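Continuing from the previous page of notes. For each protein in this section, the sequence appears first, followed by its structure tokens. Read the first protein now.
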Amino acid sequence: MKLRIYVDEQHEITDKENEVKYMAIASFFLFEEEFSEIVNDLIRLRCLNEACDDWYWDFKDCPFKNNCKEAWHDLNNSELHFVNLRKKSSKSKQEISRKWLNYFINRNKQNKSIKFNILYLNLNNLDISKFGRRRAIEMARKRLHSIF
């Protein structure tokens, strides 16, 4: 059984009471055999036209041009990070994120859950000198970035 791990959301938080800094790292885990289905579903859910059940990255390929706008495609062709979603975010981004959350909730209700994890690291407790020589640290960082 193969598992894909996605680590995409990363956010630094400072506790205002004691000035402790934390890094929150969000990840989710997909079984290899479910990967294509889930990714295709998430892409499909980018379309906000109720009559359409698919997403076309390029407006010229969209079969619903009469009920669609090129500007909508441009707005929806962007990265979504939940940490950046605020009330000032575009309604499109808010709606897409809402559709994605509902998708995950419905999968869970059907016993097809997707596992999530949010790891908090206390950055004040990390001592970089405990991680080896600087060159070894840089090499490890490069390897990590090449994986993700």
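Done with the first. The second protein uses the same format. Note its length before scrolling.
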Amino acid sequence: MTINLLVICEKQQELDDLEKVVVELRKNNKHIFVCLVSLVSLTGEKLTPTPELFDQAITPSGLFNLAYYKLGLVRKIISILYGIGLLVFFSKRYNMTHILYGVPIVFFRALNFIPLRKYTTFSYVRSTVTMDDSHRKKRSSFVRKSLNAFRFTKSYIADYFFCIDDSTKEYIQGLYPDSDVNKIQNIGSIYSYNLLMSRESELNKKQKNNQKVTKVCFLSSAFSWHGDPQSDNEQVSLLDEFCGKVRQFNLNTTSNLQVLLKLHPRDNIELYSHLIEQKKIKILHDIDVKVLDNSYCFVSVLSTLSYELAQAGFKSLYICNESLKSKYLEWYEKNSIIPLDVCDESLMKSVSNAKVVKSASLIEKKSPQKKLALFIESLVK
């Protein structure tokens, strides 16, 4: 059977990860057609694909000049229906047998509700879910399935899911309590695996595994984007307090730690503008293994990138205050993370002496992208 694969995603890093799955699929399948549809005109997220990986790459024009989530209610609904219509059209035009996407935003979820569809959907969830699912577990299976069917704009929906951590897997399992073991799998992070492989190569060249920490990079989280502006404000205050701790540590020791900031793509830099100016914080734009060695330590309240960097062998720690810890305690516990309290006297000692902890789950013969590709192939009849 020929594989006709439609690839759709929202963000560039998702595309980079899914392209690695396409590479694996092409290794063993001569009869494969891969089409990429970029909804940049609807999502506002520009994608830069690798042209040679796709037999067809399509970027449809949009109806409005703004991303769908920035539109008023009526135009938002029109934009969403238009985007769904485009994806249905291309899936039928090219007789798609498989649809592979990243985190399932509304356009992708709707593809699972098309009557008599002939394709199977796969979602690679490159994000870590921090929501508490206990309220869902109290509902009956029938009620949960009904809610998933009608509230598709707020649910994870696909035929199969591939997660990067156990907390995300557990959350999605709560949405599908009667699913079999293959529907929701934790395969690890594609980004982390490839970063780890590149990092190992660079470290072998430099032979600098035991460098002391001289730069501390704060990774922000887009709390407001996920409907939690209070945590956004607390995050800014936390960074302010952390900078004070670093300054005091430098005064009391011979250290000269430098604070950097890497913003989440959906975070607002204006929230930090006063800190950037007052605290002389530099902005880190890219994660480049040729530049970032073990003299860097990454800290965050919680973020997908922070988790992935730790998996890839970078020094990565979590800091919080009492309020943030109580709010996200369940996520910390599910991922076996002990966050450092920003008020703790031993905080800076922990940061300056941070160690690399390699992920045993990533040091395997099969990469996450290969696992995903092999599973897709196993369903081909």
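What the second structure shows: The chain has two domains: 3-188+364-378, 204-352. The chain is about 40% helix and 15% strand. We return to this in next week's lecture.
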